[in-house]
Design brief:
Number of helices of chain A: 18
Shape of chain A: globular
CATH architecture of the largest domain in chain A: Orthogonal Bundle
Strand order of the largest sheet of chain A: 1-2-5-4-3
Oligomer: homodimer
Number of strands of chain A: 15
CATH superfamily of the largest domain in chain A: CCA tRNA nucleotidyltransferase, domain 2
Number of domains of chain A: 4
Largest sheet of chain A: 5 strands, mixed
Low-confidence stretches of chain A: none
Chain lengths: 455, 455
């Protein structure tokens, strides 16, 4: 199959049908009317905007969440915007099917209407990046810029997004670190088409800095500061936001996800196939067999999922897993790999370790011998010896990894996500065994399928 | 027991008796006569000198090796000195009981006469440090300086030497790294007596630089260069040689041996006892029990001892043990401690390790993904994943430590002493077992008695 043939097959699956289009457009009109009415009722000076992929017409078929932004005048004090914004959002949402309050930088309303999710978000009505006051304010500017520059290449964006989704490199959430929708749009605008973005992948990485807004000319000082800062953070790409020279659009893109894109882009061009866009789910295998094959072991901590959104929970679980990795390493167990997640009200941290038991004594490094603390150490320990200036002694320790973990937890010696301490403290610790729901995750962790670039 | 009482008991045991004194003095006279006769016979312009603790009268009772130096005029070319020196030494030695050729910087003759070892060493007849051409030339200057400055405190030196021997901190050989006899003499000369050296131990360490020759005034540039160089090498003490401002008398003193002196000096002053000078040999224990107690394991390499003197062999064995430590660490085995040595024609390297088996797969770090080598790595391995920019893959490996060691040796991946490669390559590898002759060494290694400061 050649590239064009594949694209011909993908297009009808990512492009919304006329029916879908009519449905969401109707929905948006209805919502706009509702919003304007409510604004008038509450006597507010607020403009409703639609933003996001729906408003830009770059959404994938079947994937139509609505973002309704309520733009307050710049003169509104922040506190008032928070209060009135939530009030207004709630008043609109009450006229829809259902709603809840969600929390990001500021609280907003997440409503559902005719099966579609509608985020109702208060923001400032900014005209330029100099006005930006809250994280969401830029969305209106992004929307405008894309509409002005896309020039009918909407389907090219759809192809790129679907490709990124298929290879699991889509999503700028902190626990994904992939490509955002806006970044995909910018790449298509800059390089012309889905295929050209893929063909220029090597060049894009080497060039590193993309400046579609021409900020390096227009605001050299600010733009250079952004480039320097992001280069120091060692980002794979620095895409100066065309609507704000202070921001790298690709700030959340990690090397891992970029690497996946790197390999998959080349492979797709060499051997195009539908499976890049719509991968088949691979048949799983037995994690117990993997443990036997590798001669390694698995420790799983299972605990009640704290009531946090994924954006907050996942990074904390990751931080905790890294905390376990470091603490166990210090204690003589090697953590080869880890994985975190949650299912049905339970959160889990899975650790692949090299062994479940360690030697019964450990060497305890002490201070330099000629210090006051040197004498203390000398007096307190039974066997004391020197390596260079440093004193060492022997220490009896727990042998099994479960005992070691409980001791580390009770002594507060594992750095954990801040909202997880209590939950992890009460965790069940499972050795070389997981509940049925996690068997697949365990298998994917152990055989690295989860991250396998060649999957 | 108070300090004076202890010293009263030690003195008669370290001070040579009148009989011993008469015996060695007779011996020296006889040797001198022989040497002078032989020099005349060979028609050489050479002066015989006695150096070392016997010539300085600081030898311990029963410990009377003789150092006979044959001093050639400065004008003698080095090659001639080596050749004629050996010739002359041999000619003298032939009139003694037996002899052999030994090798240091230059070959010399080691003879035995009436049960006493006599080293016959050619050197230059130097008058000042500026004349020094070979490593042994300073001995004559050392001898003269000690004789001029000791002022009758010979027994104080004997006490200090015996104390250092008792606590196992005596000997400047590279594999001991303790106090030399000359350093002990300088300390007594500088601080007045055995007790004062012990009392001032803290002060000596803090002051760090000792300059009995007043070189920092007489030759400030050269002496400061010595101080700087030795400070950079982080020596515990910098004792500028009173006969040569370029040299640190304590260059071979390691922190470990100094640390032993530190603790033992304090302890002796707090609770004086004969055992510091004449320690009782502690009863040994079972190394197998130690292995059980600690939950660790022991790997012993046993091989034919290469025909090298200890000064050369021991550092090479140590280097090899460290090579094993690093190589095994890289392979996932932790080396907790090691010990080397030889007995009855066999040399050994003992390693205490955390386990004998490891997991069956290892994680192989690869190059950064966006390089040419990145593609190679990607193509060559089955499972490939990313952590940051770096590719990783899985590798099947040998499980048992014996297999791992043979593979490392066959691939030349252990850094070994240069004369040991062949011998170590043919070594027997013993697991958790040693031949009877090594049982005590194994026990001392495992329970750290060998280095235990509290022994």
């Amino acid at each position: 199959m050649d590239v064009e043939a594949v694209i011909e097959e993908v297009l009808p699956r990512v492009r919304p049908t006329e029916e879908e289009r009519a449905f969401v457009e109707g929905l948006m009109k209805e919502l706009e009317k509702l919003a304007v009415e409510t604004i008038v009722e509450l006597d507010l000076e607020v403009k409703p905007y639609f933003v996001g992929s729906l408003a830009k017409d770059t959404y994938l078929a079947g994937d139509h969440d609505i973002d309704l932004f309520l733009a307050f005048p710049l003169k509104t004090p922040l506190e008032e915007l928070r209060k009135k914004g939530l009030e207004l959002g709630r008043a609109i949402a009450k006229r829809l099917d259902s709603y809840e309050i969600a929390y990001a930088e500021h609280p907003y309303v997440r409503a559902y209407y005719r099966g579609v999710k509608v985020d109702i978000v208060p923001c400032y009505d900014v005209k330029s990046w100099r006005d930006v006051r809250t994280a969401v304010d830029r969305s209106i500017l992004h929307n405008r810029w894309v509409l002005e520059n896309l020039g009918g290449r909407n389907d090219e964006v759809r192809l790129l997004k679907r490709f990124l989704k298929g290879i699991k490199a889509y999503g700028s959430e902190i626990y994904v670190r992939g490509f955002s929708g806006y970044l995909a749009e910018i790449l298509v605008i800059k390089y012309g088409s889905f295929l050209e973005v893929l063909q220029k992948e090597d060049f894009i990485l080497r060039q590193k800095v993309i400046d579609p807004g021409n900020w390096l000319k227009r605001e050299p000082e600010i733009a250079m500061k952004t480039v320097k800062r992001e280069a120091e953070e060692d980002r794979p790409l620095i895409v100066i936001d065309p609507v704000d020279p202070r921001r790298n659009v690709a700030a959340n893109l990690g090397w891992e996800r970029y690497g996946v894109f790197h390999f998959k882009a080349h492979q797709f061009l060499e051997a195009p196939s539908l499976s890049f866009f719509f991968p088949e789910e691979k048949a799983g295998g037995s994690y117990l067999e993997e443990l036997r094959r590798k001669g390694t072991h698995m420790v799983t901590l299972l605990f009640e999922k704290p009531n946090l959104v994924d954006d907050v929970l996942m990074p904390q679980l990751e931080r905790s897993a890294r905390g376990f990795e470091r603490a166990l390493q210090r204690e003589g167990f090697r953590v080869l790999e880890w994985n975190v997640g949650h299912f049905r009200g339970k959160a889990f941290i899975m650790l692949e370790v090299d062994r479940l038991e360690r030697e019964k004594v450990r060497i305890k490094p002490g201070p330099e011998f000629f210090t006051e603390r040197g004498w203390d150490f000398y007096r307190k320990n039974e066997r004391v010896w020197l390596r260079g200036k440093r004193l060492y002694a022997e220490k009896r320790v727990k042998e099994g990894i479960v005992d070691v973990i409980s001791e580390l937890l009770s002594k507060n010696q594992i750095s954990l996500g801040k909202n997880l301490r209590k939950h992890v403290g009460d965790a069940d610790v499972l050795l070389d065994y997981v509940p049925e729901e996690l068997e697949e995750e365990a298998y994917l962790l152990l055989n690295r399928e989860k991250w396998n670039l060649k999957r």
